[in-house]
């Protein structure tokens, strides 16, 4: 369950960083923040689907 919380926290923070880098028009930052959002967002969704929230035993 703690893993889902960490993944979700990183996903939410990467959403904020994506918005900030789009406002600043920082192309390298946009690339990294979109990659982080994609990877950790995918991990969050798949961890919730596989393990459930709360964790199913």
Descriptive account of the structure:
Keywords: Membrane, Transmembrane, Transmembrane helix. Pfam families: DUF2759. This is DUF2759 domain-containing protein. The chain crosses the membrane at residues 27-49. InterPro entries: DUF2759. The chain has 57 residues and is an all-alpha fold. It has one domain. It is 84% helix and 0% strand. It is built from 2 helices and no strands. It has helices at residues 2-24, 27-51. Helix 1 packs antiparallel against helix 2 (27-51). The longest helix is centred in the last third of the chain and has 25 residues, at 27-51. The protein is elongated, with a radius of gyration of 13 Å. The N and C termini lie close together (11 Å). The model has no long low-confidence stretch (mean pLDDT 88).
Number of DSSP strands? Answer: 0
Overall average pLDDT:
88
Major β-sheet profile: none
End-to-end CA span = 11 Å
| Envelope shape | elongated
Protein name: DUF2759 domain-containing protein
Transmembrane segments: 27-49
Keywords: Membrane, Transmembrane, Transmembrane helix
């Amino acid at each position: 369950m703690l893993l889902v919380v960490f993944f979700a926290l990183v996903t939410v923070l990467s959403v904020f960083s994506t918005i900030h880098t789009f406002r600043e028009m920082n192309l390298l930052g946009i690339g990294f923040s979109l990659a982080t959002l994609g990877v950790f967002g995918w991990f969050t969704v798949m961890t919730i689907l596989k393990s459930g929230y709360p964790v199913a035993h």
